[in-house]
């Protein structure tokens, strides 16, 4: 089985199945297709399937022109059973967290049961979903073993954490180092052959738990350092010091410093979530993750700070009208991804305080339905007349498409959470 699959991969005869065609799965789908493999995309969202069949991308920064040129080399379906036709199955499903900050594992569990029911000898199973160390061995392995197949001989169990950075034009799947591991030596080797066909550099780690932890550590590192930047922002305000000027000065040092910037809170499907996945697992082992807890408290407090700063600015300027415009609702600049965006919480807070809230974002005609938010707003096109209608304009996401000089000129008060505006009597940092 091992030799046969190895030869299939090297000759690009192996069929690749991608389960979950979101911000992680779709780029992988396209990368394998670009490199000459036949790819089977599987997603339960039939709207995505129909668009991909037409060669249309539902993610703004991802170009799908490749689909129209390779119609014979891919298929998209919502039928899970199609994995039977694949040699390599890559799972790119999200790992959400519950209200108590524990990971919601039911989607991954149901997926692995379906995998087992459709498993055939000679297949490689790869998990890319972010999860706690031990997930693959504690959840996947016992279920898959019930198939009667032996890992490393009959099929190959692999973990490789995704490292997608939506909207990043410098780094992509090909030039980002790929971390891999597998349950056995054969599993690791198969993982190497698979990913070296689409990635320039591969980094092998000794076991699956280490690979699982790698992704968590990367995002915990970012969460803690962003939490530090947010705390410094609050402290330095009392000293009348511009945090952005401090950071820019500090990063002039060619060693020993890495810049992280403050903001209105954390967004995306990784940084706000991944640290709590590890915290949950650590608590089960009797370990208190103090840094993670503290950074979580700081970062989650930022949307409330935005409200307090706005209210204070209105009071200073004796403005009674409760009407604000939020600039940017995606979780980071220049992408159409709203997952866990702090803008959603900011809008909710202002609404709860009886403010009229609108938004402007070139990437969203309408704010979609979210699991924890029912906002139901449509995009406002920026004009001078529009900006002048609001008591305050709140910059949440610093899209390059915004004309900041125009916004500054036509706004009464600006609440700047991203450091885009110069110091001015009508600019307030938050």
CATH topology term of the largest domain = Rossmann fold
| Strands side by side in the biggest sheet | 3-2-1-4-5-6-7-8
> How far apart lie the N and C ends?
59 Å
Please state the CA-atom Rg, rounded to the nearest Å: 24 Å
* CATH homologous superfamily (4th level) name of the largest domain: NAD(P)-binding Rossmann-like Domain
- Give the H and E element order: HEHEHHEEHEHEEHEHHHHEHEHEHEE
Q: How much helix, percentage-wise, in residues? A: 25-40%
| Largest sheet composition | 8 strands, mixed
From the 3D coordinates, which CATH architecture of the largest domain would you assign?
A: 3-Layer(aba) Sandwich
Number of DSSP E strands = 13
Uncertain residue segments: none
Mean pLDDT: 94
The proportion of strand residues reads 5-15%
Query: How many helix segments?
Result: 14
The tally of structural domains comes to 2
By CATH reckoning, the class of the largest domain would read Alpha Beta
Structural class assignment: alpha/beta
Query: Which geometry do the CA atoms define?
Result: elongated
Give a brief rundown of this model:
The chain has helices spanning 2-10, 25-34, 46-53, 65-69, 106-118, 135-145, 185-195, 208-238, 243-250, 274-284, 290-316, 342-352, 384-388, 404-410; strands at residues 15-19, 38-42, 74-77, 88-91, 124-127, 156-159, 178-182, 202-204, 323-327, 356-360, 392-395, 414-416, 427-429. By secondary structure, it is α/β, with parallel strands linked by helices.
Detailed description of the structure:
Helix 8 (208-238) packs across helix 10 (274-284). With 430 residues, this protein is of the alpha/beta class. The model has no long low-confidence stretch (mean pLDDT 94). 39% of the residues lie in helices and 13% in strands. The chain has helices at residues 2-10, 25-34, 46-53, 65-69, 106-118, 135-145, 185-195, 208-238, 243-250, 274-284, 290-316, 342-352, 384-388, 404-410, and strands at residues 15-19, 38-42, 74-77, 88-91, 124-127, 156-159, 178-182, 202-204, 323-327, 356-360, 392-395, 414-416, 427-429. It contains 14 helices and 13 strands. The strands form 2 sheets. Strands 3-2-1-4-5-6-7-8 form an 8-stranded mixed β-sheet, sandwiched between helices. The chain folds into 2 domains: 2-206, Rossmann fold, CATH 3.40.50.720; 262-429, Rossmann fold (3-Layer(aba) Sandwich), CATH 3.40.50.
């Amino acid at each position: 089985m091992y030799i046969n699959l190895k030869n299939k991969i090297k000759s690009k005869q192996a069929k690749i199945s991608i389960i979950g065609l979101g911000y992680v799965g779709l780029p992988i789908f396209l990368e394998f297709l670009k490199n000459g493999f036949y790819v089977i995309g599987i997603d339960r969202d039939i709207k995505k399937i129909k668009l991909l069949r037409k060669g249309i991308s539902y993610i703004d920064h991802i170009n799908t022109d490749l689909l129209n040129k390779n119609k014979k080399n891919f298929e998209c379906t919502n039928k899970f059973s199609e994995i039977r036709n694949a040699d390599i199955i890559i799972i790119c499903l999200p790992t959400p967290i519950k209200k108590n900050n524990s990971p919601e594992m039911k989607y991954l569990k149901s997926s692995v049961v379906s995998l087992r029911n459709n498993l055939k000898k000679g297949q490689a199973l790869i998990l890319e979903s972010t999860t706690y160390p031990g997930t693959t061995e504690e959840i996947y392995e016992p279920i898959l073993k019930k198939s009667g197949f032996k890992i490393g001989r009959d099929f190959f169990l692999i973990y490789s954490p995704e490292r997608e950075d939506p909207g990043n034009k410098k780094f992509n799947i090909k030039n980002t180092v790929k971390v891999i591991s597998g349950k056995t030596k054969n599993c690791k080797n198969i993982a190497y052959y698979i990913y070296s066909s689409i990635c320039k550099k591969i980094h092998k780690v000794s076991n699956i738990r280490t690979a699982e932890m790698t992704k968590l550590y990367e995002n915990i590192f970012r969460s803690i350092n962003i939490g530090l930047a947010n705390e410094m922002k609050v402290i330095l305000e009392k000293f009348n010091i511009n945090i952005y000027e401090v950071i820019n000065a500090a990063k002039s040092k060619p060693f020993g410093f890495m810049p992280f910037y403050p903001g209105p809170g954390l967004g995306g499907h990784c940084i706000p979530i991944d640290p709590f996945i590890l915290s949950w697992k650590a608590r089960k082992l009797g370990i208190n993750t103090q840094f993670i807890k503290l950074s979580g408290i700081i970062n989650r407090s930022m949307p409330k700070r935005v409200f307090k700063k706005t209210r204070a600015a209105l009071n200073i300027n004796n403005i009674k009208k409760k009407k604000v415009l939020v600039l940017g609702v995606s979780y980071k600049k220049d992408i159409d991804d709203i997952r866990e965006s702090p803008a959603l919480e900011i809008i909710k807070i202002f609404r709860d305080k009886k403010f009229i809230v609108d938004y402007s974002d070139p990437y969203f005609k309408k704010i979609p339905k979210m699991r924890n938010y029912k906002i139901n707003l449509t995009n406002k096109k920026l004009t001078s007349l529009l900006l002048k209608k609001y008591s305050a304009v709140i910059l949440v996401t610093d899209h390059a498409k915004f004309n900041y000089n125009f916004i500054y000129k036509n706004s009464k008060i600006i609440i700047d959470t991203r450091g885009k505006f110069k110091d001015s009597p009508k600019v307030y940092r938050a």
